[in-house]
Amino acid sequence: MFQMRETVNYTEIDTEKRLTMSALLDYFQNCSINHSEDVGVDLDFLKKENLGWIISSWQIKINKMPKFKDEIIIKTWPYEFKAFYGYRNFLVTNDLGEHLVEANSIWVLLNTDARKPVVDSAKIMEKYKLEPKLEYGDKKRKLKVPTEYEEKDPVKVPSFFIDTNGHMNNVKYVLLADTYLPNDFSVGELKIEYRKEAMLDDVLYPRLTYDNDEVDVVFATEEGKPYAILKYIKK
Known about the structure:
By secondary structure, the protein is an alpha+beta fold. It has helices at residues 21-38, 43-48, 122-125, 170-177, and strands spanning 2-7, 51-62, 71-82, 85-93, 99-111, 116-117, 150-151, 155-156, 187-194, 203-211, 214-220, 226-234. Strands 1, 2, 3, 4, 5, 6, 7, 8, 9, 10, 11 and 12 form a 12-stranded antiparallel beta sheet that branches. A hairpin with a 4-residue loop joins strand 5 (99-111) and strand 6. Helix 1 (21-38) packs antiparallel against helix 4. The two termini are 29 Å apart. 34% of the residues are buried. The model has no long low-confidence stretch (mean pLDDT 94).
């Protein structure tokens, strides 16, 4: 298990002084990258091998969102590897040990030149220590694409959305999607499925569906093929 201790900063909060969803995912992303660095699978190593860990899906449960100046501990560990898939849990706690946020994620080890999964990845996987899985989350990552939706203005992918894997960083989808949520919407759970890489200057067509206590945000191509599907469930 790898962990980081953080203090929630002003630039990471919303109008109610709660940690934003995008800032939460930034913590998760930093924690997983730092874990990989710690076991010797750092960014330089991955670049030399033409490899990259690509997120495929998130399942995130908010029990109690951290607030401004809260001292929190972000923990992460892999619990299974299968072929080119890596399954990783995340947990945010306080000093009392309360489970503030629980998350499950699925990653793909990608050849960044061919843009294809790497099947022979044992030398990478063996560097990580597997630990028991959280009770929250499963491998059922498929989300339905709503057939009825409201269209929003297209968004062109800018250069600062692109990460070291050469595509739009997974957190940027959340950063955009959060702007479409109603002001009184308190997130209890967020599920994300990434289906297509968005590259520099690609145009995302946001499609929103409001259904009682859920909001679906789909970023699609002009033809309707999804880049990412996000399902927000109200607390």
